[in-house]
Structure formats: structure tokens, C-alpha cells
Design goal:
Strand content: 25-35%
Number of domains: 1
Number of strands: 13
Oligomer: single chain
Radius of gyration: 16 Å
Helix content: 10-25%
CATH class: Alpha Beta
CATH architecture: Alpha-Beta Complex
Order of helices and strands: EHEEEEHEEEEHEEEEH
Length: about 210
């Protein structure tokens, strides 16, 4: 996938805005802002389905975002980097409950380690999922147990890396007569490269816009 550009001209979110107290304050008194991406161009005929993801910020010496690599056999988004999350169940009272339930099912994250800060605007994927991103702080002593049926790996990326547009790459592709555009945020840890793209990168881009507004 060819890189059309990298947003090195945009300012990064300062470290002072990424502390736990600053993040709590940001969601307690959110600014006026507009998400950059609200929906992808549809490529699926399936009926729309509501879902939630948890954007978990783990409180280590520097804040880290917890991500998963999905197993290769899943029917949707197999092998991709994703937030913990999934389809809403009828018994879920709100998007936050969906995100917490799915995070517990996928990575074993217990809600007692989580402080929900708030939600970002919904993000509609090309596969017809209407995603509510739920941003939360996660205690560093949390215990994780990945579900091997859904999660191939759990890893963490520095929040500062993801909130720096110098790491945001732009892509475009003509497919079935439709031009599709998306972001990626490739991250290397040791010898492994993690390709963060699609809805995950789009939600992180909106989170950047929220933090810079």
C-alpha cells in the first residue's frame, strides 16, 4: 500500500496533556471539535450492527495504549490490529458496558482495573459496524488473559507515538471503481512490525483531533 503522505506538519499532543489528570480533565470538560473521519465507504451488504471498542490507556511510566492482533481465522478483520471490542448484545445497557464486557471476554481485563473517561463520536466501518469508541484509563497492575480463539497477541504502543501525526501515514486505493482513503500508524517493537490501520487508525486519528482541539 503506497504512502501518499505523512502529516509531519501537524503538531503532536504535548506530554502535559497526556497525564492521567489531564486526560480526566479533557473528558470532563470536552472542547468543541469535529471528528476527521466519521464513516468509511461501504463495501458490505450486511445490515448495520452496533459495536463498541475500548481504547485502553495503561498507566505505566509513560501512558501506553493496549491493542490486540486478531487471530487469522476470524470471519471479520482477521489478523488485523484492533482495540478490544465487538458487537453490542441486547442486554448491554450502553456502549460503555459493551466495551467493558468485550474487553473482559477478549483479553480478560476486569472492570475493576478500568476507569472510563468517556466516548468519542461513532465511527462507521466499511463492513457496516457502527462503533462507539470508549476511552478509559487502565491500572498498570491489571491481569490480562487473552482469549486464544480471538486474540493472537496483546501489545502496547506509547500514547505519545499515536498522538504524533508524524507517525500518521495516508493511503488511497481505487477498488471496484471507488477511491478508498485511510490512515496507518506502523509501529515497530523489536523485530516485529505492527501495521495499525483501518478503523483502529481512524479512531486514533479522531482521538488526536479531540486532544488537539
Amino acid at each position: 500500500m503506497a504512502v501518499l503522505g505523512v502529516d509531519t506538519h501537524l503538531p503532536a499532543v504535548p506530554a502535559t496533556a497526556q497525564t492521567p489528570d489531564a486526560l480526566r480533565q479533557r473528558f470532563a470538560m470536552p472542547p468543541l471539535w469535529q471528528p476527521e473521519i466519521q464513516s468509511e465507504k461501504s463495501f458490505s451488504a450486511r445490515p448495520p450492527a452496533h459495536a463498541s471498542v475500548l481504547l485502553p490507556i495503561v498507566l505505566r511510566d509513560q501512558p501506553m495504549v493496549l491493542l490486540t492482533e486478531r487471530t487469522a481465522h476470524l470471519s471479520t478483520h482477521s489478523g488485523q490490529v484492533a482495540f478490544p471490542g465487538g458487537r453490542a448484545d441486547p442486554q448491554d445497557p450502553n456502549p460503555e458496558a459493551t466495551a467493558l464486557r468485550e474487553a473482559h471476554e477478549e483479553v480478560g481485563l476486569d472492570a475493576r482495573f478500568v476507569q472510563v473517561l468517556g466516548t468519542l463520536p461513532t465511527y462507521v466501518t466499511g463492513s457496516s459496524f457502527i462503533i462507539s469508541p470508549v476511552v478509559a484509563l487502565v491500572q498498570s497492575d491489571c491481569v490480562l488473559r487473552p482469549n486464544p480463539c480471538e486474540v493472537a497477541e496483546i501489545f502496547e504502543v506509547p500514547l505519545a507515538f499515536l498522538l504524533n501525526p508524524a507517525h500518521h501515514q495516508r493511503h488511497a486505493l481505487e477498488w471496484q471503481g471507488v477511491r478508498r482513503e485511510w490512515f496507518s500508524m506502523p509501529y515497530q517493537r523489536g523485530a516485529k512490525n505492527y501495521f495499525i490501520w483501518g478503523a483502529t487508525a481512524g479512531i486514533l486519528r479522531n482521538f488526536y483531533r479531540f486532544m488537539r482541539a
